[in-house]
Each structure stands twice: as C-alpha cells, then as structure tokens.
C-alpha cells in the first residue's frame, strides 16, 4: 500500500507518494511537484536528493554496509576476482564458468589499442598528469572504435572492449612518460597480472609476476568497483543522459574522479602523510584540519554517506599489513597513517563530525607496495571504478523513465535591467 506525505502550501494540500527501497530506505517522489504546486526543491550538493532508483549497489552509511548486486563487498574481496566482479556488476549476476571463459577471451581479444594512438601519447607533454591523459585517450577511442550500441551483443562488445583497453591505455601513459617502449598485453595473463606486466616488464629486467601482488591488486580494484551515485558516477549518468557515446560519458567520469575531494584523495593522502613524516607535525596537521579558517582537510577522512567506518577501508588496512609482511616491506608512512587514525578517532572534533577514514586513507600504502607511482594512484581508482560506471551507464540508458538530466534553480540575481550603451556607463 503506497504511503504519502502531505504538503500544505498556501490554501492547498498536496499528496506526494513515498517510495520504499529493498532495504527499507524511503524517498518522497517529487517528480510531479512543480506541475502540481509550482514549487521545486533546493538541495545544494544533493545530500538529500535521490537521482534514480538502481538495482546495482547498496550502501548503508550508518551501518557501513556495501553490496554489489546484493553480495557483500567483504565476500567478493575474499572469494572473487576483479574480472568476475566486473562481470557481476555489468551483467547483474555471477558468471558461469563458460560465461567467464567467454568474457576472458573477449577481454584478451580486445586488449590492444590502435597503433596510431601512440602518436597522441608521444605528443603529450611528459609532465602531463596520467588522469588527464586517460580521460583524453578514452574519449579518443571513439575515433578508432566507432561504438556499436544497437544490439545487446554489440553493447557487450563495446563495454568489454573499453574494460580491456583501459589497462593498456593506463600502462602506456606510464611507460611513455618514462621514455620507455610500451609493453604489449599477453594472451597468457589474466586481467590484473596483464596490467602489472604492461606496467613493469622491461627488456632488461623481466617482471616477476607475484601472485600475492596480483591478488592485492584484484582486491584493490574490487573495493573500488562501484559506489552507487557518487560524484563521478553521477557525472557519467548526467553526461550519458544526453545520449553521447559511452566513451564520452566515461571520459567525464574520469575527469570528475580526478578531484582531490573524490578519487584524487588517494594521491593527496600520500602527499599529506609524507609531509607529516618529513616535518613531524602530526598534531599540527590535526589542528589545521579542525580550524574552520584553514582550508586544509585531513585527506582520506570523512565521507558524504559513511558516517561510520567505510567497510572498504577496513579491508584495505588489513591488506596493508598482510601485503607488506609478505613482500617484506616496511613503509614508514603506514605507521604514520595508523598513528594519525588513532589520534583522530579519539579527537572530539572527528567524533562529533562522524569523520572516519575512508577507502582512500590506506589505498596509497597498498599501491606503493605494489610499485605504482603516486601520480598513477587515481588512475588505479579509475580502472577499478570502470565496471561500476559502465553498469550504472547501462542501467540509465535502459531505464524507460530516464530522460535528459536538467536540474532547475532558484534565481537570486538582479531584476529586469535595461541595457546601457557604453557611452553612458
Ligand atoms: C571518495 O561519494 C562517494 O562514494 C565517494 C567515494 C567513492 O567510492 O566514489 O567513496 C570515494 O571520494 C571518498 C572521499 C575522498 N575524499 C577525501 O578523503 C577528502 C577529504 N574529505 C573531505 O573533503 C570530506 O569529508 C568529503 C568531501 C569527502 C565529504 O564531505 P561532506 O560530507 O560534503 O561534508 P562537508 O564537507 O559538508 O563537511 C561536514 C563537516 C564540515 O565541518 P562543519 O562546517 O560542519 O563544522 O565535516 C568537516 C567539514 O569541515 N569535514 C572535515 C573533513 N571532512 C569533513 N574536517 C576535516 N577533515 C576532513 N577530512
């Protein structure tokens, strides 16, 4: 039985339906509010506004829950691979062995990029940030691989092609930025191992593929694979609503993720921890983070939705300890991070503001142990989030109720004003 809320405005009373989600979360459906009452709502930053219904990912920010297609992220991190989790997000179910084998063949067969794309990289300034390069190259794919989006199998080919090539594009930016020849993907390597080999193999020092490192990267990407309507996913949906190409929508998502308040935080956390380690100024950093007049924020802390521990952070932190131990690495920044977490979590400011470490707080330590350069950290986040972006894009494109996204506003500028010719100003 549908619930309603009553809105009393002036002499009139309006009934607005309440919709309920699978886990009991409720929303007022205001899709007819303006037509009925002439009113719109205002919610800067959309903290109280749902943009869509979705069957892909469920988050509970109060309980620290994250599930992809109903499966807890903890189980996927423990038992699945990134390739299988990508299939789950995009196709809505765990693959059978045959489906997974067919998916692997399609990923392998589409892992090369057109040789002419090398010219783009070679003409990019060597100091360019890899996120800027990746956003451009994904958009450029359209010129080499015109999209096929009519039949289901064409869509499947297009999204799998992008999922495969993103690794090659990312590794190319690293190799070419160092003046090295690119390393081609290999048919005998699975998704994560292939990326690592493209990044670190060299004619003078063959890359030793360590299963421990491959597993850590696969778990890292599983933890980043989707996160419902975050900033970059909303960018993909918003841009995709204009019916642009998939590549253009994903390129917009990469650009949004680059921001230091969003995916760029993993790089900003390492910069912050390094600065604290070098200057031994942890207490000053915490005081600065609490000072309203100071724009400094504790990077890797806080979240728009999680008001308790980010479940991904717990797994990432545990992985830091196990990975560094297995690789016999001692990273001083891990100790700084743990001390910072311990002090902050006892501080009334962070407790009162419900500020906990998020997925980015320990992510950089894992990536450093794997050997990823700091300026590639957010690229690693983007590769992990790609299946989520694709799944959310597909869902929005397939939604019969989906339309061009076009929010309204409340105008607070000057009233009607006449033009003044320049001679009279
Ligand atoms: C990601 O949305 C997602 O799902 C994103 C993500 C994903 O998987 O897609 O989870 C990935 O982006 C994680 C977040 C990474 N960003 C950072 O770690 C950057 C540091 N964090 C902050 O910038 C901040 O916490 C945000 C932007 C992440 C969230 O901020 P909100 O929820 O918009 O809250 P706010 O900025 O309005 O802050 C509320 C209060 C403010 O104080 P008051 O003015 O109310 O007194 O909390 C304070 C803020 O000053 N605050 C912080 C803080 N974060 C919030 N104070 C110090 N340090 C911080 N990190």
List the topology elements.
Elements: E1 3-9, E2 12-20, E3 26-28, H1 33-37, E4 57-60, E5 65-68, E6 71-72, H2 73-79, H3 82-91, H4 97-109, H5 117-122, H6 130-144, H7 152-177, H8 191-200, H9 211-224, H10 231-240, H11 246-257, H12 265-279, H13 282-290, H14 311-326, H15 332-345, H16 348-352, H17 360-370, H18 377-398
Antiparallel strand pairs: 1-2, 2-3, 4-5, 5-6
Bound molecules: s-citryldethia Coenzyme A.
S-citryldethia Coenzyme A (SDX) binds next to loops.
Question: What does this protein look like?
Answer:
This protein has 425 residues and is mainly alpha-helical. It has two domains: 3-60, Rubrerythrin, domain 2; 74-401, Citrate Synthase, domain 1 (Orthogonal Bundle). Helix content is 52%, strand content 7%. The protein has a three-stranded antiparallel beta sheet with strand order 1-2-3. The radius of gyration is 23 Å and the shape is globular. The N and C termini lie far apart (64 Å). The model has no long low-confidence stretch (mean pLDDT 95). The protein binds s-citryldethia Coenzyme A. S-citryldethia Coenzyme A binds next to loops.
Q: What percent of the residues sit in helical stretches (DSSP H or I)? A: 40-55%
Distinct helical segment count: 18
Uncertain segments:
none
> Can you write the helix and strand succession as a string?
EEEHEEEHHHHHHHHHHHHHHHHH
Kindly provide the name of the CATH class of the largest domain: Mainly Alpha
Estimated radius of gyration: 23 Å
Count of spatially separate domains: 2
Number of strands: 6
Structural class: mainly alpha
CATH superfamily of the largest domain: Citrate Synthase, domain 1
- Give the terminus-to-terminus CA distance: 64 Å
């Amino acid at each position: 039985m549908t619930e309603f809320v009553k809105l009393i405005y002036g002499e009139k009373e309006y009934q607005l339906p309440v919709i309920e989600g699978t886990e009991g979360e409720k929303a007022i459906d205001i899709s007819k509010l303006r037509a009925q009452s002439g009113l719109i709502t205002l919610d800067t930053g959309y903290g109280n506004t749902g943009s869509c219904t979705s069957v892909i990912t469920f988050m509970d920010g109060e309980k620290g829950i994250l599930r992809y297609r109903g499966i807890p992220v903890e189980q996927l991190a423990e038992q699945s691979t990134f390739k299988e989790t990508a299939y789950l997000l995009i196709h809505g179910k765990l693959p059978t062995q045959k489906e997974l084998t067919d998916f692997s063949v399609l990923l392998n067969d589409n892992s090369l990029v057109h040789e002419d794309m090398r010219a783009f990289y070679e003409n990019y300034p060597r100091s360019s940030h890899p996120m800027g390069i990746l956003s451009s190259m994904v958009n450029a794919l359209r010129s080499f691989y015109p999209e096929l989006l009519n039949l289901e199998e064409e869509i499947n080919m297009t999204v799998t092609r992008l999922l495969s090539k993103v690794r090659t594009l990312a590794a190319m930016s690293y190799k070419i930025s160092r003046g090295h020849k690119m390393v081609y993907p290999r048919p005998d390597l699975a998704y994560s191992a292939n990326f690592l080999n493209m990044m670190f193999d060299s004619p003078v020092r063959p890359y030793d593929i360590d299963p421990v490192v491959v597993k850590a990267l696969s778990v890292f990407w599983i933890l980043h694979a989707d996160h419902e309507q975050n900033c970059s996913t909303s960018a993909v949906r918003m841009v995709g609503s204009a019916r642009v190409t998939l590549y253009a929508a994903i390129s917009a998502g990469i650009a949004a993720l680059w921001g230091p308040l969003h995916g760029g935080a993993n790089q900003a956390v390492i910069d912050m921890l390094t600065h604290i380690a070098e200057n031994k100024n942890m207490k000053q950093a915490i005081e600065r983070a609490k000072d309203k007049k100071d724009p400094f924020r504790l990077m890797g802390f806080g979240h728009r939705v999680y008001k308790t521990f980010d479940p991904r952070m717990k797994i990432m932190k545990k992985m830091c300890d196990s990975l560094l131990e297995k690789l016999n690495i001692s990273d001083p920044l891990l100790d700084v991070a743990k001390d910072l977490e311990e002090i902050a979590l006892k501080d009334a400011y962070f407790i009162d503001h419900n500020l906990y470490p998020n997925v980015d707080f320990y992510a950089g330590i894992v990536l450093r142990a794997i050997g990823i350069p700091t300026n590639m950290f957010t690229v690693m986040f983007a590769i992990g989030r790609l299946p989520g972006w694709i799944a959310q894009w597909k869902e929005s494109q397939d939604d019969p109720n989906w339309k061009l996204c076009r929010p309204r506003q409340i105008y607070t500028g000057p009233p009607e004003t006449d033009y003044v010719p320049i001679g009279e100003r």
